[in-house]
Amino acid sequence: MRSKELIGEVTHYFSRIGVAVVELQGDIRVGDRIRIEGATTSFEQQVESMEIENERIEAAGEGQAIGLKVKEKVRPHDRVYRVEVEVKVE
Questions:
Q1: Which pLDDT belongs to residue 21?
Q2: Looking at the domain assignment, is residue 90 inside a domain?
Q3: Are 24 and 67 in contact (CB under 8 A)?
Q4: What is the separation, in whole angstroms, between the first and last Cα of the chain?
Q5: Residue 28, class by beta-carbon neighbours within 10 Å (0-12 exposed, 13-18 middle, 19+ buried)?
């Protein structure tokens, strides 16, 4: 079973450099697994690189706008979720 938590929304996409601007409603850090969903968008990736005002950062939180390197095209209003895989212990 997988759980997902809404952590932000895409406000802009720079296609030439493959970077989305995300307004955060939750916490995110390099290494997190995220899912981006929208009307025509649906993919998962690991967070490898993010910036605030051209400065690389390791983590960001609610209320911040970050530049997030994405592997596919995204669109304004796409939602960004942190995905967690629940491990069953028997």
A1: 98
A2: no
A3: no
A4: 15
A5: buried
Residue 80 lies in a domain: no
Distance from C-alpha of 47 to C-alpha of 70, rounded to nearest angstrom: 8
pLDDT digits (tens, 9 = 90+) for 51-68: 999 999 999 999 999 999
**How far is it, in rounded angstroms, from Cα 47 to Cα 27?**
12
Residue-by-residue DSSP string for 25-77: SS-EETT-EEEEE-SS-EEEEE---EEETTEE-SEE-TT-EEEEE-SS---TT
CATH of the domain at 11: 2.40.30.10
What is the share, in percent, of the chain residues with pLDDT greater than 90?
89
Q: What's the pLDDT tens digit per position in 64-85? A: 999 999 999 999 999 999 998 6
Task: Name every residue whose Cβ is closer than 8 Å to that of residue 40 and which is 6 or more positions away in sequence.
Answer: 75
Task: Please state the domain count of the chain.
Answer: 1
The three-class DSSP label of residue 85 is strand
